[in-house]
Fold these 3 entries.
Entry 1:
Amino acid sequence: MSMIDDVIAKVKEKDKDQPEFIQAVEEVLTTLKPTEEKHPEFVKAKIYERIVEPERVVMFKVVWEDDKGEIHVNRGYRVQFNGAIGPYKGGLRFHPTVNLGIIKFLGFEQIFKNALTTLPMGGGKGGSDFNPKGKSDREVMRFCYAFMQELYRHIGPDTDVPAGDIGVGAREIGFLYGMYKKIVNEHTGVLTGKAFEYGGSLIRPEATGYGLVYFTSEMLASEGMTLEGKTVAISGAGNVAQHAAQKVNQLGGKVITLSDSNGTVVDMDGIKGEKWDFVMELKNVRRGRIREYAEKYNVPYYEGKSVWDVIRDEGLKVDIALPCATQNEIHKDHAEALVKAGVKAVAEGANMPSTLEAIKVYQENGILYGPAKAANAGGVAVSGLEMSQNSLRLQWTREEVDNKLREIMRKIYKQSVEAAEAYGKPGDLLTGANIAGFLKVAKAMLAYGVM
Ligand code: NDP
């Protein structure tokens, strides 16, 4: 058994109640095996054992009152996973499925993703099992205030800088930042994803989706292809999905699917122009269900099915798949259906949307595969740029931020390709991204000595 297998086995034993965290550790560490031989200094310093252990886990209760005066108790989390190369950085997720294992998996992945962006950011993640769905704006406000009344003491612009994730968008960041500012009496870059008026960066809302599509374009270019004329399946209908769709449209592709946790719509004419505006209003203003799109535009709606179920069951032809909803949405049978559908590239907007078995199917069938921590790093990259702008007390133009984002996505792609080649896995972006991110963090950890 290799040393890395031993570390994985120990995590499986210690954290057996955290399947998503175990999955993430197994995915990353397995691909790090080529570093074991080349870097005996990492083995000796037990970097692999140290990197799977969070530096700090904060769990707290969040007590709030609904509109009827009833009291609710939720659980809040912040996992400060690794601060070797910069302040902890990573989003907050508000979703009923949130538990410690989910936050640890997200925080662990964030370490490598943040390192890849070329910016100085450590890895962290947080959230709550609070379900914002069906809550009034004032209930969400009271929850966010209560959440921040505890979180504020653990974060800071040079310590830990949270952002949004599932269930945490512009509205929630406004409430959270407002309460932070009130408690500490300071205007600082302690949260990213802020609105432009109070210190946010232009292009931050768009960044994950745009970055995903820039990364996809790099992957396609390596085989002499572009997005022009390609049919694209996107899952989700939230922040990442919306802006991925917008950028695909701008680059001449055709988006034929969107979904939410209730079902999937298929529009073979493309979700663009006025139809895309409708989705923005539906999801961000009215907070309605994607079914309404099918009703308005008279297109098929598949209740209870994911985009990948629909592709499998209806035999749709698709060139590119961009999963942008949630973890483990693409299973082995879905991946096999994507092969049959003629998919040339899968790039992950969501975190860990493909199971390990699904990834294997992509790899065995020559599908270009852009792993989440490289492909969706545009969001945290622009968060890093928001931190820089806050420190400088400046706000850059859309063009400046977009150009920087495009350049960062190019560099992430290049680093991943080069690391894959240098460590004997040419063309394997999963291995390349993991190794490139790991090397930066491991070298910093080594420099600090034993701590
Ligand atoms: P949003 O909350 O804006 O949207 C999430 C979308 O996915 C919604 O359409 C939601 O449907 C759907 N969804 C969520 N959970 C499930 C589920 N269990 N089953 C089926 N559908 C589900 O989140 P984001 O767009 O911000 O995030 C999407 C993914 O991208 C996540 O994996 C996130 O971690 C990742 N990501 C986000 C970044 C960002 O900048 N926002 C950065 C990097 C990664 P419904 O409304 O019905 O819940």
Entry 2:
Amino acid sequence: MLALLKTIREAIANWWSDFTLQTKLLAVATLVVSLVMSGLTFWAVNTIQQDARLNDTRFGRDLGLLLAANVTPLVAENNLTAVAQFSQRFYSSTSSVRYMLYADESGKIFFGIPFWEPEVENSLLTIERRIQLPEDYPGEDDKPMVRQHMTPDGAVTDVFVPLTVDKKYLGVLAIGINPNQTAVISTNFTRDVTIAVFITIWVMVILAGVINALTITKPIKELLVGVKQIAYGNFKQRIDLPLGGELGELILSFNDMAERLERYEEQNIEELTAEKAKLETLVSTIADGAVLIDNNMQVILVNPTARRIFGWEGNDVVGSNVLHQLPSAVQMEITRPLYEMATGECESAEFRIHLNQPTKRTVRILLTTVLNLQRESIKGIAITVQDITREVELNEAKSQFISNVSHELRTPLFNIKSFIETLHDYGEDLSLDQRQDFLKTVNHETDRLTRLVNDVLDLSKLESGRSYNFDAVDLSQAIEQTLRTYQLNAKDKGIELLQEVAPNLPLVKSNYDLLLQVLANLVGNALKFTKAGGKVAIRAYQLTPKSNSQHKSPQVRIEVADTGIGIASEDQQAIFDRFFRVENRVHTLEGTGLGLSIVRNIIERHGTKVHLVSEVGIGTTFWFDLTLAE
Ligand code: ADP
């Protein structure tokens, strides 16, 4: 039982604590107001009832005294008939009197209206009835006594009037008086109205609370939830409450705001996605390798170039530790700097590393810390990898070239200077033949010098991108001119120079001077790298266009073949590079390393390519195709 009471109390306490302070205060205020109102009502009802009772008492006392004054002499005379007649008249003339009883001094009722039955008295069996007087009845006093008393028929005012003549107590007259009906009715009415007022107050307060909850609290709660959702970034939040007035307007504005925010967010996301795609495309297409790692050395992003350089193609390196993935040469160099950068000890670093795996190359690695937007903390490290293999090679070739050119320039210059000096100082002492010989050498050296300078100029002219005219050129004429130039040279070296040009060759689209330069370079090289007794041939013939061939238009092929020293397959690509000379490693024959660069440049200007087949010790053939002139 106690436990049940306890749980009920707890349930009520819980229920009560669920309400807000405002609601609690409102409930308490309502209770106080309703209690005050009910108190006032009860007070008013009591006052009115007491008033009515006082009036009834006064009226009863007056009526009793009046009646007693009239009947006392008759009772003294014992004239009961007169008493009865008078009483009957009095009773029937007034509606206020409910009953009248007369009792003698011993309390025995000797007459009463309306329930007096004389037959009973006249019969042999006399039933004696006694009046029941109130306990506090003063007895033989003059003054009447009045009391209110409830009967099953309603309230009644009892009046007891002692009948005394000359101080002699004859008995008592008891009159029952109906209470003032209007007073009773108005009292009831007032009470009902006040109860109604009491109930109305509660009903109104509860109604006001419900309406308040439905029209104000609910929308405000929904708005609050909505605003919180927006604050959390959920812009899809809408409020669906069909409300008018200012709250309705507020809800409309809220929905409008949420919609704008949602659209703005969508637009932002689109822009961000587009930017991300742009960046990703940029990162994936840049020539440099890019690897982004976080502070724990985990790979976040890696572009295709970096994958290729580090041999990560087909490996899923994202998410793994970069130090476990890097080639050992790189790992050895950058592990320490990476940790230093992650702890903020340094901001950037640069390395030049030679890789043997997966292919031989030289890379420049740049490390840069990636800071957050406020540039306060380190978010990660960007590793940029530049493949500088070619740069290094070119640089080496350039240094080689400069030393070559200086050497090439210095030798003829020195020779020219010393021969001229000798001629100048001792010219008269020398024989004519000697002088002729000296001058020939000077002339030869000047030619060498001119050739070198011309080669450098030619190449720079070709590489400067100036345009040349392409006309219809007679190939056989160009070939013949070349052969004429080199015939003597070949004879000197004991090399057979052959011309194998197909008859009636059509004209080709070319630039005559440039074509001559190509042929001269190729034939010059062939003679240079072929030993005595060897053969050098220039061939030209028309290609029959094959249906499956790339070139549908008819073309002419030109070949320069020799039976010279040949070119090792690993050098076959490099010989076309500027300044590259196989004999740089051998240092035997003179040359600039520019001839084949010039050839490739010119042939590419013709919209075609120069090819070669070569075998060391057997010989070399260079060939290219030219389109026919229109
Ligand atoms: P160079 O002025 O040294 O001849 P080139 O650019 O003309 O420069 O040639 C580059 C290199 O290619 C030469 O140094 C030589 O090693 C090689 N080469 C060119 N032509 C031949 C050939 N016909 N036979 C063998 N080696 C050749």
Entry 3:
Amino acid sequence: MIKLDISKALVSADKVAAFEGKIAETQQALENGTCAGNDFLGWLHLPSSITAEFMTELQECAQTLRENCDTVVVAGIGGSYLGARAVIEALSNSFQWLTNNGENPTILFAGNNIGEDYLYELTEYLKDKKFGVINISKSGTTTETALAFRLLKKQCEEQRGKDVARKVIVAITDAKKGAARTCANKEGYTSFIIPDNVGGRFSVLTPVGLLPIAVAGFDITKLVKGAADMEQATAPSVPFSENISAQYAAVRNALYQEGKKIEILVNFQPKLHFMNEWWKQLYGESEGKEGKGIFPAAVDFSTDLHSMGQWIQEGERTIFETVVSIEEPEHKLLFPSDEENLDGLNFLAGKRVDEVNKMAELGTQLAHVDGGVPNMRLIVPRLDEYNLGQIIYFFEKACGISGLLLNVNPFNQPGVEAYKKNMFALLGKPGYEKETEAIKGRLNS
Ligand code: PA5
């Protein structure tokens, strides 16, 4: 199992222990469905409730896409894409995943921005590809995703014909409402339902994440097993001192109370970049409300030690870090010896690249702790499906507990609507006439 090391968190054991009672209550409220946001607790026992039949259904759909496509575009934004991307990038070869390695379809992502160049270049790239689309939107109405899907649907139908398009376009959306559901029903697409009681950022273990991950060729059974084992390992019956989600929630809240307002999630493996992005959304949307919440930021080390390292070491002391540390890489690479030793690196000859990386990690921890940056480490034996499943559930459970400790509803995101209202008013969307007038007035004043 993955482990959490809080020994360098620079917070007293008493302060952490002080959260035990409150966390026990919070865990119980989650179990009983009596906490804030209790209509969105479907994620809590999701891993242990996924049936073998459902996995087979997903795998069959994935197989159809794998057999009929060299490229699959996943259209979705926020919780409807970050989890899938995080897992796929963490498990993929850093250089082959964008250049179809022959065995697996190339997975591309769209519908997560409105960049004209991005969409133009995507449609150009797809021109000679046998591509399919997984259209993911819980509401079925998200503008970014709907715009991309409109373009992709048309191109897929024109390139591959309506009949094939019908086979290689899959919808993952609400059971009844939203434009994505209407379209899927009308066109007869294979579709999967996003459960009502699972919010976007908690949905990676629903078809939202599982289908794209299976299409990419990864073992979703192991992913779900890892999550289910973590569900057990963080259950209310597990003692506080052994429950890593409870410990993480306690430490970060203790630090927040001491003025540590920013948490950075750190990796030393570039493949984890999108895991950082997924985590940022999970914690940002869950906790950042009512004028409260730790600001979730993320860095890729050692890369960002050369950009953000100075701030972290010596900037305002309002920051703490959580390092996702991978114990064993998949591959082995030794530094060669060089007769001339012009670069002076012969002292590393015969050492593994990872040994240098690990010393960078340890050296950074020592320096940051000396600089007053509390440090937690999530220790992960290796990057595989099982451990990623554990990481996902560990962070989800801790997030639910942590948000409730802050006294906010961790499962809503009312603030996300503000920009949408303005954008629709500015674009003159029917139904927004009053807002359009108001916004024009504001811009002209
Ligand atoms: O966590 C959330 O609820 C959001 O990030 C959504 O996932 C995101 O806005 C996309 O919404 P939808 O799936 O409705 O298109």
